[in-house]
Specification:
The protein is of the alpha+beta class and about 220 residues long. It has 4 helices and 16 strands.
Length: about 220
């Protein structure tokens, strides 16, 4: 009987120790941008400010996103092996440098038809001059078929890599017509190799330094 009595305080202490980690934790998460979307473990749960509940012995990855801003994320765990989650957490969001270096454009990844009254020799010379003023390397050029393609040019940003190339195809001879396309793609991460085709997707924006190439071609080839 005495032995059992001695064991009771031990069980109580063990129970209290376990109970201290069994309770859920609530965190008030907020962002500097009031319309920023807040996600918990990949699921949208609100905008601007929300309460996050983390049950015992679990973790939650909190992510904030807004177009034009860098995505931010943090992981909180409610267990005895991790630091105690804070009662509140604030995300100070920063501008997305790839967004600020680009503009949204209808010319991105679309064939633009351009008719000209110039001869093939004159038009082809002008096309090459203008394209090489924007792109350093022409990968393929064939006057006989009226085809030109530049090499990819990549630019890396904090959370993105943008690759751009320009393609010209002769569409008809009478009237002399070309189809031109400014190809703009993004990877969604920094430092992505140009050769990793599977990581790139079409982007509805173009880097500002290429934004005027179509309009310049249109004006000078009239």
């Amino acid at each position: 009987m005495k032995r059992s009595a001695k064991l009771i305080p031990v069980f109580i202490m063990l129970f209290l120790s376990i109970s201290s980690f069994a309770s859920k934790k609530t965190i008030v998460v907020s962002a500097s941008e009031q319309d920023a979307k807040i996600y918990k473990n990949g699921k949208l749960i609100g905008s601007g400010q929300v309460e996050i509940v983390i049950v015992s012995n679990s973790c939650a990855t909190i992510e904030v996103r807004k177009i034009g801003y860098l995505t931010q994320k943090v992981k909180f765990c409610n267990n005895k092996y991790s630091a105690k989650p804070p009662k509140a957490y604030f995300f100070e969001m920063s501008r997305d440098d790839s967004f600020d270096a680009s503009i949204r454009s209808d010319i991105a990844n679309n064939d633009i038809e351009l008719k000209t009254t110039k001869s093939m020799d004159e038009a082809w010379k002008l096309i090459n001059q203008i394209v090489t003023s924007y792109f350093d390397v022409i990968e393929i050029t064939d006057k006989e078929t009226g085809y030109l393609r530049t090499a990819w040019v990549a630019q890396s940003f904090k959370q993105n890599t943008i690759r751009t190339r320009f393609i010209v195809k002769q569409a008809s001879t009478k009237p002399l017509t070309f189809k031109m396309k400014l190809v703009s793609e993004y990877s969604g991460s920094a430092g992505t190799s140009i050769k990793r085709d599977e990581q790139y997707r079409e982007w509805d924006r173009v880097l500002r330094k290429y934004a005027n190439i179509i309009s310049e071609l249109t004006t000078r080839l009239k």
